[in-house]
Amino acid sequence: MMPDPPSAPEPTDEALLQAMARGQEEALRELHRRHARLLYALGYRMLRQRDDVETCVQDAFMNAWRHAARFDPTRASVKTWLVSIAHHRFLQELRDRPQLALELEEWDAPVQAPDPTDRALAARAVQALDAAQRQLIELAYYQGYSHSELAALTGLPIGTVKSRLRAALTKMRGHLVGAGGITNADSQEGGEYT
What we know:
Elements: H1 13-21, H2 25-47, H3 50-66, H4 78-96, H5 104-108, H6 116-127, H7 131-142, H8 147-154, H9 158-179, H10 184-188
């Protein structure tokens, strides 16, 4: 009996993105398989409406497909790049909705996410923040407030808002690395956060 030939290693996210830039649809399907669950979880937390989340995640992957050649691996990992694209799309969806007054507590209510592990890790990372940091993160990332809107809302100078958000993200990243939620390589990348 002949042994099975060794299987080829799975392509990296970066290799898949390069393949997407060359028009290989299978690469898009594989990136979707790897990262859609994370994007759906973020979308559910922000939008709370399944149809809107599905549309936005599909739009995010199509945007990644169209702009795959523009990806710069020196600025962020593929995962961070995809999250950034999706996050911008979720924010646009929030801005396009009619203005509805929602209290912070309503935004803070638990939401069913597709992956309970991801949800638990993210919740623990947010809970690791002090109350002021947690409020800024929730307002910026879950309600879509810009830095200038946060400054006006909180009465803080815009530079202070940016510094506190960066400190909160750094603290969350440290918590996630310690909890095994992200790899050390993801935590050290120079990716941009929105």
